[in-house]
Write a structure and sequence with these properties.
- This protein is α/β, with parallel strands linked by helices.
- The protein folds into 4 domains: 2-107, 3-Layer(aba) Sandwich (Rossmann fold), CATH 3.40.50; 123-234, Transcription Regulator spoIIAA, CATH 3.30.750; 241-258 and 273-354, Transcription Regulator spoIIAA; 359-414, OB fold (Dihydrolipoamide Acetyltransferase, E2P) (Beta Barrel), CATH 2.40.50.
- It has helices spanning 2-15, 39-52, 55-58, 69-74, 77-82, 96-102, 146-150, 158-170, 193-201, 221-229, 246-251, 258-271, 290-303, 330-353; strands at residues 29-34, 63-68, 86-88, 106-107, 128-132, 134-135, 154-155, 175-179, 187-188, 191-192, 208-212, 236-238, 276-283, 307-312, 359-367, 374-379, 384-388, 397-405, 410-414.
- Helix 9 (193-201) packs parallel to helix 10 (221-229).
- The longest helix is centred in the C-terminal third of the chain and has 24 residues, at 330-353.
- The two termini are 34 Å apart.
- The structure holds iron/sulfur cluster.
- Iron/sulfur cluster is lined by residues 137, 139-141, 144, 146-147, 181-182, 215.
- The site of iron/sulfur cluster has 10 residues, from helix 7.
Length: 416
Amino acid sequence: MNLADSELVSSILIEAGHKLVSNIDEADLIIFNTCSVREHAENRVLGRIATEKFRKSINPELKIAVIGCMAQRMGKRLIDNYGVDYVVGVDQYLDFPKLIYENKGAITDPDFTQTYSGIRPYHQSKTCAYITIMRGCNNFCSYCIVPYVRGRERSLPAKLIIEEVKKCGQIGLKDITLLGQNVNSYSYQDINFPKLLRQLNGIDSIYRIRFITSHPKDLSDELIEVMAESSNICEHIHLPLQSGDNDILAAMNRNYTIEHYINIINKLRNAIPDIAITTDIMTGFPGESETAFNHTLQAMQEIQFDYAFCFKYSPRENTKAATLPDQIPEEIRLERLKRMVNLQREISRKKYEAKIGSEVEVYVESMSKKSARQVSGKTRDFKIAVLDGTEQDLGTIKKARVIASTGNTLLCYDRS
Ligand code: SF4
């Protein structure tokens, strides 16, 4: 979401006459687009601001701006306490150029109707596009700050999304990822998310469609049906589990049980046998006993995710979970996180190794970072793949055979 918002803000500023530079030494405005989901992310931003401030002594005209959720949450405190020049909240990006022009400080008034519809993002990639289809969230998971800083759900008009996807395909961005805090709740007039996907699947100029993030309580049979039927929708879903323990899921206000979650996974795997499933899992939520934590490890063993983003719980100001008793000490959170990461690493390693010898379809996204004679891309099931190639291969589909795995990357042989 932040990458898409950075592209949105770039577009607004370019339209106002500013230009992007590729070297930070040439910048006279440095913008930090921030995330508030975890305290760690915020601390890193504050550290980076402190590091970059030395540039002001070399270039007194240099300005530093903070945008995104942290700007929304902290507002003017970032100017008063951290020496930032501009603070722009998540609903105020259209006024960012005016703020720069007038050299004023902070604008963070929430506008929970703002969708930025009609603004074409400045897509940075030459091969892939992120397209926001909705903003905000209505779910109020008890640990999460997003509904407080991003407001309630609102969906962008389907017609504009379809037009943007078509335009992306025409300029070579043929791998599309649709974005929303909960894409399953997309609703614009009589178009729900599966209907939107059906329409997007019919666009000739693109090769692939993905979407993040889905909520297990809202993932419908209709969506599974559309995924199974649509050749451009990739065999991959990101479905946050968060915990494998029903009491913890209830305290998180997630509104599903582990049985419901496993039932969805079974339906997905029955309908789309090769589907890859990735997830977010948290440990150390208040009240999580060793037994509850083991339920999460058991769920991971049973489900066998292709990949899991594992986190330790991070208390966030003004959320319900931050006020709950039985906060788990940091050393226990860390120790459980380590066990969780080790388990997932082993599961992912086996998943990747199981691909050796199989035929995969790779969409080539970039040159490999390690070799000038190799290119890198993704398989349909969201695994990074590397194969021999040149710049001419960027944006093309390759049929390849997997010859080895590093545990998180597939090494492939081009058979196109
Ligand atoms: S679904 Fe829950 S975790 Fe996701 S953004 Fe909404 S409140 Fe946060």
